[in-house]
Amino acid sequence: MGPLIDALPFSYTVSVIALGAAVLGLTAGVLGTLAVLRQRTLVGDALAHATLPGVCVAFIATGAKDASTLLVGAGAFGLIGALLVVGLERSGRTRPDAAIGVMLSSFFALGIVLLTYIGSLNQSGQAGLESYLFGQAAGLVERDVTIMAALGLGALAVVAALFRPLKSTLFDADHAAAGGLPIRALEVVMTALLVVAIVIGVRTVGAILMVAMLVVPAAAARQLTGRLAGVLVLAGLIGATVGVTGALLSAQSGLPTGPVIVLVGFLVVLACLLLAPGRGILWRARKLARDRRRLLVEGVLIDLETALHGGPPPTQHELALASGRPRRALRRALGDLERTGALARDGERIYLSESGAASVHAVLERRDLWSAWLEHGWRLELPDAREPDPRDLRASLGDEHADRLRALAAEARA
Amino acid sequence: MSVDEVPVHSGGAPALEVRRLTVSYETRPVLWDVDASFPTGALSAIVGPNGAGKSTLLRAALGLIPADAGQALVQGRPARSALDRVAFVPQRDAVDWDFPITVREVVEMGRYPVRGWLRRLTGEDRAIVDEALERVGMGPFARRQIGRLSGGQRQRVFIARALARQAPVMLLDEPFAGIDARTEATLLDLLRELRAEGRSIVVVHHDLGTVRASFDWALVLNVRAVACGPVGEVIVPQTLRRAYGTDAVNDGAQDGELRWVR
Ligand SMILES: Nc1ncnc2c1ncn2[C@@H]1O[C@H](COP(=O)(O)OP(=O)(O)O)[C@@H](O)[C@H]1O
Ligand SMILES: [Mg+2]
Q: Does any CB of chain A come closer than 8 Å to the CB of residue B84?
């Protein structure tokens, strides 16, 4: 760790905190993704809460207050919690979410009782175990970070080595098992990895909010990519970034680390949900608005062509009456057409420029082709499952099929 | 298709055979003492009402759920040790369609057990994956996330994954449920092609009309095996009445076709 710490542009203490937060964010991001994809995030929450009594028991048993000893207790209780959750679920007596809820609250209650008991012992230097509730980045020492990093790298190495079996089990457990994969064992491995991530993070983030570090990076990363490898890598990077930012902010401000990290994470998820290309809410809204506008403009173009066909060039007012479109929409569409040079004007009266006439022609052809597809498409007997795009059928079908489609339509008309 | 066209091989073990199979969830038996066999090189169907245990039969045969009694054989060998000869297409209802995976990656999963789960795929595997995608007409969609497909396209992808497995026996659970007619026709043609290549195919299917018209062999199941044999002998009013209950099936008096009322 030494050289890494020296390389960072911070004081020694801050560098240790930053490194620790990076390690915890990275591992929680990657290993949390596995839980999210199994739809087991609540289990992560229960296991995080189960570590609290573990920390207390370790303290009572050994009297030690260094993080590494206490985390052994946390890990042990995390595993016990995992066994109990699975056992209660398998018993078939309760629904999984109820089983998880029971475990989560019971372990946490036990933790609070033990914390209070330890507080009442009134020993000198009684370890400030309360920081395991909301997390504390300050006070991380280099030795803790080294151990965290070793555990984290080990866990990430397991994920890398088992990538294909894990991917298969996560996506379709039945198919994976039919291919001979021991999916029960892999599920155990994934749960154990989850415990590792929690143990690494619980001191800094706290038992109550640890689940956020497991879920937030996965949720954000999923918005940005549609491939598992990409989600894992991005979740790791996002987790590390969020962890470091939150830990440094909290160390500076004196606020508890867990809530600060989680709030930073929330901002990242929010940004991804809104803005992610192809998936983000705002991104989609913008695309939808653009598509609607294009349809409107095409419609007005055809209205104009129809009016010109039937008589002298219309005024904007006449066009509005003839087409029955709201005036505002019409004005906008005409504005767009004006800008692309599709219109020509003669005083009040509007007609089509040469390029406007060409666009009308193209639009009409596209529409004809689309209705031909709807009516005769099945007769093409396309060799594959391709999906025609109504905006540009010719491109999605290919020229050959498009021409055959036109021929079929013409034949049917004759 | 008439009975004597059924490609039942006189010698050699059946593609899939279950003997005295009993499976229960909790204590309720879902399959009871089921004997059935599906011949090599045939297109076979498993039919029966909802909840008859059709999915359970396939899953128990593959060892995905424990059986109380009985055994399953694939090409004469215990199924658990012959998994490399079987390609399985599970029912699609349990799949998380938002899962971050592309069409191509799904099909590649068919190669993992062949190549070894921890190995990288080779150029040969990639060629096989390409071919499987082409065969189900999903080549143009290889890079698309699986959730952005229609129901029929998803089923094509799952069948491509089974093709990539290159196994002699294929088991498909309700592959035609909830897909469009064109896709169903295309996929049925594909299954016939595969049969012509000598593969043995067992399909859980709910449309008795299609089974009569296109399949060679059928198991009629409702907890017990009601009948198992060539379609012409098995998909008949008596057995269907026993499997589905009396009012579910009418004999079409005029055209001799079975009318199937849900
Ligand atoms: N995991 C399960 N636990 C308990 N009962 C189940 C489970 N899976 C299926 N069953 C029950 O077993 C019976 C057979 O189910 P299944 O094999 O899926 O029928 P099919 O595929 O013929 O519709 C049904 O009554 C169903 O409710
Ligand atoms: Mg079923």
A: yes
CB contact under 8 A, A385 and B118: no
Structural domains of chain A ordered from first start: 2-215 (1.10.3470.10), 283-352 (1.10.10.10), 358-413 (no CATH)
Higher-pLDDT residue of B245 and A108 is A108
A385 pLDDT band, cuts 50/70/90, is low
The SS3 call for residue A195 is helix
Q: Is B137's CB within 8 Å of A181's CB?
A: no
Provide the number of structural domains found in chain B. Answer: 1
- A119-123, A218-222, B185-189, B245-249: lowest mean pLDDT where? B245-249
**Contact (CB<8Å) A164/B26:** no
Please name the residues between 101 and 130 in chain B that touch chain A, using a CB distance below 8 Å.
101-102, 105-106, 109, 112-113, 117-118
CATH of the domain at B108: 3.40.50.300
Residue B1 lies in a domain: no
Per DSSP, which regions of chain B are E strands? 16-25, 28-38, 43-47, 69-74, 77-78, 86-89, 169-173, 200-204, 217-222, 224-230, 249-251, 258-260
Q: With 90 as the cut, is the pLDDT of residue A29 above it?
A: yes
From the CA of B229, how far away is ligand 2's center (Å)? Answer: 21
Give me the domain span that covers residue B173.
16-261
Residue B150 in domain: yes
Considering CB atoms only, which of A175, A231, A385 is closest to B152?
A385
State the DSSP code for B257: P
Q: Which run of H or of E encompasses A59? A: helix A41-62
Nearest bound ligand to the CA of residue B30: 1
Q: How many pairs of residues across A and B have Cβ atoms under 8 Å apart?
A: 104
